[in-house]
Each structure stands twice: as C-alpha cells, then as structure tokens.
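Obj: model holo form, ligand = FE2/S2 (inorganic) cluster.
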Amino acid sequence: MQLITLYGQASKKKWVIEVNDKASLDLTILEFLRSHNFPIASSCDGEKVCQLCTINEGLLACNVLVKDIITKYNSIITITYL
Ligand code: FES
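Output (holo structure tokens):
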C-alpha cells in the first residue's frame, strides 16, 4: 500500500490518502481525487484543455498518473484552491 499526501493551500489542510489497489496506480490524479470525493476544478472533464485542474504549481491533474506522483513527486500533491 502506498500513501499520497494532499495539501490544500487555501484551507491549510492536509490529507493522507491510501492507494490500496494496483488499478488506482493507473488512474489520473483527477480520477483518483474525484473517486475520493475531492472537488477538483475542471470544465473540460479531463480533456487537458481547461487547465483548471492544476496541481503542484503547473501539472495538470488530468495528465498525471497516480504512479507518477508516487515515483516522481515524492507522493505529494499540492492544490492552491483546495
Ligand atoms: S480537467 Fe481540464 S485540463 Fe485537466
């Protein structure tokens, strides 16, 4: 099991989310956070157009996989408006 830490800069809150099945590793961050009921901004619904789903100061949540956040970004997600 992997853990992902999510920081909401607006709320100054932190959540630790379990990645408890292999299928979740291939979800986008947009899909993963929505499946955990986090309100991720989007008007294009994951089509990589609106750029509202920005995380980690420039990544698109709909264009980054859970496994990439774990391996390349130290399992940390930061969202400014959350
Ligand atoms: S949801 Fe629109 S760019 Fe990611």
